[in-house]
Amino acid sequence: MSLDKSHGYVSIVGFNYIQPICTLLEKLLSLDSKDPNEVQASQAENGYSSAIIMLTMLLVESAIARVKYDLDKTSSRSPLEFVRTELPSFTSIDKLEELFVVRDVIAHNHVWEAKFLRDDNAGLRLIAAELRRGYGDRKFRGVLNQETRKTRLLGVNLFPTRIWRDDAIIVLKAAIDFLLFLQEVSGFVNISNQYEIFNGELQSFTDVVAKL
After folding, report:
1. What is the pLDDT of residues 37-95, one digit of tens each?
2. Taking a C-beta distance cutoff of 8 angstroms, is the pair 140, 107 a contact?
3. Which of 66, 69, 145 is nearest to 101 (CA)?
4. Residue 173 belongs to what domain range?
């Protein structure tokens, strides 16, 4: 093998998550739509929605890693802090912070201790809920709406068992907005050029999300 014919390669995995996201999204949207009660969504709805959010945030973090590489910024700062300090032209940093908080809530399974009543009409009704000590950091406390237990700007559930399709769609749309921004600052993050199979057809991922 001749080294003169070797090529450069960077191990960025992010775009590989798009087809699994589309597959999970198809399954989620095929479920009967039913709003969560005050305590939980259905098991399937919650599981598929949480999985979509996690893969979406892995895609986002991978894209940030690619930009860090392109800009030769190899500091140990968190992805969010990198965007905040190195890409100040991104004007929706507070929404991006909420996405990372939601990711943490799912990944670390933030535990709320709650009391509820059973209502024949409304299902489970939440009487009181408190996040168990040891969960949540400064970011979490900064984005939490105490009354709704959702994020302040995007309105995504931070009570993990209530996460459902609306939350997944909100995260997907906000993530695409951010990835389109990265596309402008890095030629290696071209989200507009990503096509995958969705509902049996080859479709642009950005179009799939835009139609949700």
Report:
1. 888 999 999 999 999 999 999 999 999 999 998 887 777 679 999 999 999 999 999 99
2. no
3. 145
4. 9-109+161-210
